[in-house]
Amino acid sequence: MANPNLSAIDDWLNAAWTKMPKRYHWLLLQTLATREDRRAWIHSWRLAPGWLVVDVGCGPGIMAHEIAAIHGCRVLGLDRDASLLAVARDLNRALACASVSFQHGDIYDALPPSPVADFAVARFLAQYASDLTLFFAHLKAWVRPSGEVAVEDVDDAYLVEYPQPPSSWQHIVQAFQQYQSGTQGDRTVGRKLAHAGVAAGLALQDVQLNPRVMVRMLNPDDPSVEFDIMRIREELPNLIHEGLLTEAAWTQAERDYRATFPQLTYVSSATVRVLFRRPGG
Ligand SMILES: C[S@@+](CC[C@H](N)C(=O)[O-])C[C@H]1O[C@@H](n2cnc3c(N)ncnc32)[C@H](O)[C@@H]1O
Prior knowledge:
The protein has 281 residues and is of the alpha/beta class. It has helices spanning 6-16, 25-33, 35-44, 62-71, 82-95, 132-142, 167-184, 193-199, 223-234, 236-241, 247-259, and strands at 52-56, 74-79, 100-104, 117-123, 143-154, 160-162, 203-218, 263-277. The protein has 11 helices and 8 strands. α5 links the parallel β2 (74-79) and β3. α3 crosses α4 and α7 (167-184) packs across α11 (247-259). The two termini are 34 Å apart. The structure holds S-adenosylmethionine.
């Protein structure tokens, strides 16, 4: 198959996510849960069949294959995590998709030898950048003059849950956010993207706040409840090591949080999506 189709990607994701290493479950679950919204964003890009798109920080390669499926492009996925790239290559083999390939490496190690791509995308990668202007300088170096750069990331200022979770769980979430603001990711990076891209010499084309709201009866085993718990549990040893939490506080909070369900729950969140053009051409 030259380019995959979206239902083949869904079939693989549905069957494969539980078989992947446990530390990736939250990422795969999130990718599965947000696919409609992400695909609508990909659809909105102006790409021509055969163009080369670079997906920087591609993780398990789901979006790389979605781009190929939607636009008939060639896609090169880059990531520093070799075991996530093994997941991406598994998917690539299952889809027999020659137009998508993957390369291992840290984006800050070296600038690409030439601006080979027509378009670059980085989704949920900017939050890990210690210097956002440098991050954009590296993205820009991938694309030819007049090529475009699309970036999506979070801004937790828009995160609202009603009814509010029990105070023991709110304490856990705050400890997690404090931990993330260290080396594990800036949860307010979304609002900073436009400034940093312009500082790196990119021309701003479009900025969108992308809100998502959900109101439904949530059960204790609902994937979105599981996802929240899983994501923090994965980092629990580090949170305890840094003195931000105790094992006992975690156990109590998880019990309290699960006990609030089933309950009709409102959750709103938002990402920021920014599109730039590389000047020239
Ligand atoms: C939250 S995941 C997002 C994956 C994917 N873009 C998505 O939207 O599903 C962040 C990814 O960025 C990768 N990453 C973080 N810093 C990186 C760097 N400096 N160079 C290359 N990859 C990086 C991580 O290994 C991880 O796969």
